[in-house]
Amino acid sequence: MSNAQENANSISESTVSCEEPESMKPDSDETESWTQLTDDPSRSTQRHTVRYVSVGCHKNHIYVDIRNWVSKDDKMQPLKVGIRLTVQEFQRLVSITPEIQADIKKRLDHNSSNSREQTPHIQQAK
Protein backbone atom coordinates (compact mmCIF):
# COMPACT_ATOMS: atom_id res chain seq x y z
CA MET A 1 0.00 0.00 0.00
CA SER A 2 1.38 3.43 -0.92
CA ASN A 3 1.90 6.29 1.54
CA ALA A 4 -0.96 8.20 -0.09
CA GLN A 5 -3.32 5.24 0.37
CA GLU A 6 -2.25 4.79 4.00
CA ASN A 7 -2.75 8.51 4.69
CA ALA A 8 -6.18 8.50 3.03
CA ASN A 9 -7.25 5.39 4.92
CA SER A 10 -6.19 6.92 8.23
CA ILE A 11 -8.55 9.89 7.75
CA SER A 12 -11.79 9.50 9.63
CA GLU A 13 -14.87 11.73 9.68
CA SER A 14 -15.11 11.26 13.44
CA THR A 15 -11.79 13.09 13.87
CA VAL A 16 -12.66 16.21 11.89
CA SER A 17 -10.41 19.11 12.78
CA CYS A 18 -10.35 22.37 10.88
CA GLU A 19 -6.96 23.40 12.23
CA GLU A 20 -4.38 24.25 9.55
CA PRO A 21 -1.58 21.66 9.18
CA GLU A 22 2.03 22.83 9.46
CA SER A 23 3.04 21.75 5.96
CA MET A 24 1.66 19.47 3.28
CA LYS A 25 4.12 19.23 0.40
CA PRO A 26 3.65 16.64 -2.36
CA ASP A 27 6.22 13.81 -2.46
CA SER A 28 7.33 14.48 -6.03
CA ASP A 29 7.71 17.39 -8.42
CA GLU A 30 4.49 18.49 -10.08
CA THR A 31 4.01 19.35 -13.72
CA GLU A 32 4.22 23.02 -14.52
CA SER A 33 0.45 23.45 -14.85
CA TRP A 34 -0.10 22.40 -11.23
CA THR A 35 0.91 24.39 -8.20
CA GLN A 36 2.00 22.72 -5.01
CA LEU A 37 -0.46 22.26 -2.20
CA THR A 38 1.24 24.85 -0.01
CA ASP A 39 1.59 27.49 -2.75
CA ASP A 40 -0.63 30.56 -2.55
CA PRO A 41 -2.22 30.99 -5.99
CA SER A 42 -3.01 34.64 -5.30
CA ARG A 43 0.74 35.32 -5.13
CA SER A 44 1.64 33.34 -8.24
CA THR A 45 3.68 35.03 -10.95
CA GLN A 46 2.46 32.63 -13.62
CA ARG A 47 0.40 34.23 -16.38
CA HIS A 48 -1.72 31.29 -17.43
CA THR A 49 -4.38 29.05 -16.00
CA VAL A 50 -3.10 26.72 -13.30
CA ARG A 51 -4.71 23.97 -11.28
CA TYR A 52 -4.43 24.47 -7.56
CA VAL A 53 -5.02 21.71 -5.02
CA SER A 54 -5.93 22.66 -1.48
CA VAL A 55 -7.39 21.07 1.61
CA GLY A 56 -10.01 23.16 3.32
CA CYS A 57 -12.71 23.05 5.89
CA HIS A 58 -16.30 24.29 5.77
CA LYS A 59 -18.86 23.72 8.54
CA ASN A 60 -16.57 21.13 10.21
CA HIS A 61 -16.24 19.09 7.00
CA ILE A 62 -12.87 18.61 5.34
CA TYR A 63 -12.64 18.92 1.55
CA VAL A 64 -9.99 18.48 -1.13
CA ASP A 65 -10.50 21.28 -3.62
CA ILE A 66 -9.04 21.07 -7.15
CA ARG A 67 -9.67 24.34 -8.91
CA ASN A 68 -8.47 26.27 -11.96
CA TRP A 69 -6.96 29.70 -11.28
CA VAL A 70 -6.22 32.35 -13.89
CA SER A 71 -4.25 35.57 -13.95
CA LYS A 72 -6.58 38.56 -14.10
CA ASP A 73 -5.53 42.17 -13.47
CA ASP A 74 -2.09 40.94 -12.34
CA LYS A 75 -3.68 38.74 -9.65
CA MET A 76 -4.44 35.04 -9.59
CA GLN A 77 -8.16 34.41 -9.10
CA PRO A 78 -10.10 31.15 -8.76
CA LEU A 79 -12.51 30.07 -11.46
CA LYS A 80 -15.69 28.09 -11.02
CA VAL A 81 -14.01 25.29 -12.98
CA GLY A 82 -12.99 22.63 -10.51
CA ILE A 83 -14.16 19.98 -8.11
CA ARG A 84 -14.50 19.71 -4.34
CA LEU A 85 -14.14 16.19 -2.97
CA THR A 86 -15.31 15.03 0.43
CA VAL A 87 -12.91 12.91 2.49
CA GLN A 88 -14.77 9.75 1.42
CA GLU A 89 -14.64 10.75 -2.27
CA PHE A 90 -10.92 11.50 -1.98
CA GLN A 91 -10.30 8.15 -0.24
CA ARG A 92 -12.13 6.37 -3.06
CA LEU A 93 -10.08 8.21 -5.68
CA VAL A 94 -6.84 7.25 -3.91
CA SER A 95 -7.96 3.62 -3.63
CA ILE A 96 -8.61 3.30 -7.38
CA THR A 97 -5.47 5.19 -8.43
CA PRO A 98 -3.59 1.97 -9.39
CA GLU A 99 -6.46 0.99 -11.72
CA ILE A 100 -6.46 4.46 -13.29
CA GLN A 101 -2.68 4.35 -13.76
CA ALA A 102 -2.89 0.89 -15.36
CA ASP A 103 -5.60 2.09 -17.77
CA ILE A 104 -3.57 5.19 -18.70
CA LYS A 105 -0.47 3.05 -19.31
CA LYS A 106 -2.47 0.62 -21.46
CA ARG A 107 -3.88 3.47 -23.55
CA LEU A 108 -0.49 5.18 -23.90
CA ASP A 109 1.11 1.91 -24.99
CA HIS A 110 -1.72 1.32 -27.47
CA ASN A 111 -1.49 4.87 -28.85
CA SER A 112 2.30 4.73 -29.21
CA SER A 113 2.10 1.44 -31.13
CA ASN A 114 -0.60 2.90 -33.40
CA SER A 115 1.35 6.09 -34.02
CA ARG A 116 4.37 4.08 -35.21
CA GLU A 117 2.17 2.27 -37.72
CA GLN A 118 0.35 5.34 -39.08
CA THR A 119 1.67 8.44 -40.78
CA PRO A 120 0.34 11.58 -39.06
CA HIS A 121 -1.92 13.54 -41.41
CA ILE A 122 -3.28 16.22 -39.08
CA GLN A 123 -1.11 19.18 -38.20
CA GLN A 124 -1.33 20.80 -34.82
CA ALA A 125 -2.86 24.30 -34.77
CA LYS A 126 -0.39 27.02 -33.87
Write a structural description.
By secondary structure, the protein is an alpha+beta fold. The chain has a single domain, classed as Transcriptional Coactivator Pc4, Chain A (Transcriptional Co-activator pc4, Chain A), CATH 2.30.31.10. It is built from 3 helices and 4 strands. A 4-stranded mixed sheet has the order 1-2-3-4. β2 and β3 form a beta hairpin. α1 runs antiparallel to α2. The longest helix is centred in the last third of the chain and has 21 residues. The C terminus is likely disordered.
DSSP strand tally: 4
| Helix content percent band | 25-40%
Number of domains: 1
C-alpha end-to-end distance: 43 Å
Instruction: Give me the CATH superfamily.
Output: Transcriptional Coactivator Pc4, Chain A
- Strand content is 25-35%
Shape: flat
SS summary, helix count: 3
CATH architecture title: Roll
Task: Give the integer mean of the pLDDT values.
Answer: 71
- Evaluate the radius of gyration: 18 Å
SSE order, one letter for each helix or strand: HEEEEHH
- The residue ranges in which pLDDT falls below 50 over 5 or more consecutive positions are 21-32, 122-126
The strand order across the widest sheet is 1-2-3-4
What class do helices, strands and sheet pairing give?
alpha+beta
Instruction: Characterize the biggest β-sheet.
Output: 4 strands, mixed
CATH class: Mainly Beta
CATH fold title: Transcriptional Co-activator pc4, Chain A
